[in-house]
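Let us practice reading a record.
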Amino acid sequence: MDDKFTRRHFLQSNAAAAAGVGLAGRLAKGQTSTPTTRPSDTLSVGIIGCGDRGKYLTYVCQIVPGIRVAAICDVNRERMANVHQQLGGQGDTHRDYRNILNNKSIDAVVVATNAHWHARMAIDACEAGKDVYLEKPVATSIAEGQAIIKAARRHSRVIQMGMQQHSWEHYREAVEIVQSGRLGDISHVRVWDVENAWPGFGTPPDGPAPPELDWEFWLGPSPLVPYNPNRYVRAEWFFDYDGGWQVAWGAHHFDIVHWAMGVEAPLAATGSGGHFAFKDNREWPDTFTGTCEYPPGRVARNGFLATYTMGHGSGRLIEGRAHGKAFHGTDGVLIVDRSGFEVFSEARDGEKVISQERVASYTRSHDVVQNHMKRFLECVRAHRIPEADIRVGHRATNPGHLMNVAWRVGRRVRWNGATEQVVDDVEAARWLTKAYRKPWALPDV
C-alpha cells in the first residue's frame, strides 16, 4: 500500500470529525449519544502493532462476531506479513498508522504497540473520529494518560483499556466479597509479580537494525539511539518505552485493587530497587518493592497500605501464585490471581473457607479476551463509556508511575489524587512528563 502521508492531509480529512462534538468531555458512565455504527453494522477495525499481542488481538477480532479487520500496521514488515497471512491476505497493510486513521471506512483501532507510542496514537485516533481499544499500560507517564483522557472526552470517543481482568467473572466475585465487608476492616493489600528470569537478558551490543524493521519510526517520540535487540524485544525494561513490571503488570493489579477497595488514587508512594539479580542492560530494576498509601474508604475505615513486590531473580511463588493480590482484613484474607481466588478466615486460625479454583473455566484466556472485546464492540455501538474506560486504566497505571517517581528521587512522594499533581516536590513533579522527539510531540488537547 502507498504510505505517502502529510500531517496537513490528516488534519483536513478529520476536521469534520473533530468539529461539533457536543458531548465531548461530558459523557458519564452509562450515558449515550449517537452511535458511530448501527447495532446491525459490522465494526471495521484497524490493528496498529503486529507483535505478539497485536497478532493475538487480531485473532480475537477474527472470531468475535460483528468485527472485521480491515487494515493492519507495523514498522516491522515481517511481523506485519505474518499477521496478514493470518488474515488470509485480506485487508490493507501500512507502515504508517496515520493511513489507517485517514481511512474513513474504519470505525475503530486496536493499539497494540509498545507503550511509548500509546499516547500519540490514541490522541490521533480520537482526533480522527475513531474509537480505540488501547492495550495496557496506558502510557509512559502520568501526563500522557491525562492527555489521552482529555482527547477522548473532547472528541466523544470510546476508549477501552485492554485490562481483561475487568471482564473476568471470578475477579468480579472476589471484588464483591471484598466490598461485602466479610473480610472485616482491610488495612493491607499485597501485590506481587515474581519470575526466575535467569540468566537475564545479557548485554548485546548496539548495531544495525534488521532490514525488515524501520527502527527510527519504531522509536517515534523517544530519543534517537542506536538499535539494540533488547530495546526492541524487551522494551518494557527501558526508561523511554515503558515503566518495568511495576507499570506493565501493576496496571492489571491496581485495577482490581482500586475496584475492590473503592478508591482511585493513593496519597503517597515509595519505591526501592536495583539490579540485584542480573547484570544485563535493562534500565528499570530487576528487583523492586514499592508502597502506596490510600485514604479511608468503604472497607478501610482508617485507610490502607498497598505493597508491591517484583523480582526476576527467583520464581518461588508467593501464596502459591506468581502474579497475585492478597486483601488482608480483620476477619479474613482473600487471595486472587488469574486462576481463581481463596478466602481464609482469621477467626479460625487460617482455615480455608471459600475456594474458587476454577481452572477449567477461568484460565482459557481466549474466552476472557473475547468477552472483553465483545464489551468494546457493545460500547462502540451504543457510544457508551466502558467499565474499563481510559480513566479507569489511567488511574490503575498511576501507582506504578508514582512508585517509579519515588524510586528516581529516592524518597516518599505525596500525591493529590483530585488534581493529579505531586505535593510540594518540584524534582518529583518533573517526572510526571517527558521530552519528545520531533515531530512526535503530543498534540494540544
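A brief commentary: Confidence is low (pLDDT under 50) at residues 1-26, 28-35, 358-366.
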